[in-house]
Queue: 2 jobs
Job 1
Amino acid sequence: MVSSTAEQHIAFPLLKAQWLCQTFIHWPYEPAVVQAVLPPGLSADLYDDAAWVSFTPFLMSRVGPPGPPAAHRATFPETNLRTYVRLEDGTDALWFFSLEVSSALMLTARLAGAPYHLGDLSLRTRGDGSITYTGVRRGGAPSYHLTVRPGRVIVPGARDIWLTSRWRAVTRRAGRLWQTPVAHEPWPLSAAREDGLEQSLTHAAGLPPPAGTPLLHFSPGVRRVRLGAPRPVGRRQRRS
C-alpha cells in the first residue's frame, strides 16, 4: 500500500520548494483507456478497479536549490495532469501527462523528460474562502478555469492517501524511463467542492472527457519539499 510518509530520505536534494494551496480533482477511468496512453514499461495502477487521472493546481513557493540565499527563490503557479502507475518491478509512481507552469525556471526539468509547458497561470483567493485557478498554455491551448471551495478537515483514509501521496515521478527521455524521488511531510487534507471547472488538458493528453464522479481534496500545502536527482529506471537505488 502507498504510505502517507516519504519512502526515502533525500539528503542532497537538487531542488527545495513549498507546495501550497493545492487542489486535487481525481477522476476514475477505465484502466484500458489510461494504459493506451502510457509508454512501454509502465502499467496503470488501480484503486477500486479503476485507473485515476488527477488535475492538481497549486502554488510553487520558495523554489530553488538548497542553501542561501533563500530570498532569491521563486514563487509561481503550477498545474499538473497526472496518473498513477507501476514500474515493471511493482514500484508505484506518478506519470505526468503535462505540467503547466508560469516560470521558465522549471523548464530545465525537460532534460529528464518532464513535460513542462510555459503558460499564463493565476491563483486567486477570495473573501468567501473560494479559490480560483486559471491557466492557458502559450499558443492558446489547452486551458483551464476552476473555482473550488475548501471544506472540513478530514482524517485521510486509504483511498485519500493512495491518490495524494506518491514519492517518485517517472519521465521518459531518449527512449528510456527515469525516476525522480521526492520527500515531504504528510499532506494535511480537507474535503472540497468544485464550483465550476472547464479544462482541455485531458483532451490534449489524448484522454476522453472525464465521465465518472470526481473526488476532490484540498490542502493548504506542504513546506518541506525535497526533490532528488533523476536516475534511470532499473538502476539500483541509493540514498539520495
Job 2
Amino acid sequence: MDTDAQLSERDRSPAPDEAPGDGMPDQGAEQGSRSARFPRRVRRVRRVRRVRLARQVRLARQWLTGGGPLRRAGLLLIVCLVFLLLVSSYVVQPFQIPSGSMQQTFQVGDRVLVNKLAYRFGDEPRRGDVIVFDGTGSFVQDTPSENPVTALIRTGASAVGLMRPAETDYIKRVVGVGGDRVRCCDRRGRLEVNGRPVLEEYLYPGDEPSRVPFDIVVPEGKLWVMGDHRSDSRDSRDHLGEPGGGTVPLDRVIGRADWIGWPLGRITSLKRPDAFADVPDPGGPGGDTGHPGGPHG
C-alpha cells in the first residue's frame, strides 16, 4: 500500500512555505478578513448599549421630574431622611432623654445632640463630660430581645430623635477616668476624686452626692459615671458587684452631649463644668495614691 500517497491525498492544507500564487487559496487573507469584521460587531454592540442606557436615563429623568408635586415631595422627603440617617450615624445624633436621672441639666423629653466626632480623633472623655454610651456588659448584662421589625423602626426613628433610644443606651456624667480614685463621701458629705473634694453645682437641688458610700479605683480604659439627679439615677454605684464593677469601657462610648436641640425654649450648648478643674491626676502631685479597701455599700 502506498501510504505516502494516501497521506498526501488526505492533507488538503497548504504547505507552510507555499506562497500565494502557487495555485493554493490565500488562507491568511481569509482569516484576516474574518478578524476585520469582528471590530465592527463590537462597535455595533457598544452602540446598542449606549442607546439603551440613554433611553433608561431619559425614562428615569421623566419619572423623577414628572408625577406632580406629590411625587417630588416624596422624593425630597426620602433624600432628607437618608441625609439625616447618614449624619446621625457618623456626625451628630439626636438623643431623647428618657428619664429624670440627669435633672436639672436635662428634662425628660429633651432632645440632646450627641457629638460622635468628639472622641473620634484620639481625644478621650474627661471628668465632667456628659456622655452617651452603650451599657451592654456594664449596666446591662443580658441584652433584651426585640422584634426585628420593631428594632428597625426604633433605630430609624431614634436616629432622628422621634423615639427613645435603645434600652441599652444611657446618658451620664463622667466623674472618674482610668486611674482615678473616686470616693464618697468625706466628712462634709462631698465626693472626692484623687483626694480632692468636688463641689458639684450641677446636682439636682436637695440631692446628696451619694447616699451609698463607695470607694473605688477606676481601671485603665474605663470610666466611672453618675447621674446628676443622684437619688433618681441608676449609675455606676448600682453595678459595683457586677462584671466590670460598674465602670464603662471607653469603646462603648457613643459620643458627647454638646447641645440641647429641643424644645426651642431650652436650646443651649453644654460646657464642661469647673467642678473638676482642681482635681489632680492620679498619682501626681497632690493626688491620692492610696488604694481603697474595696467597693462597699
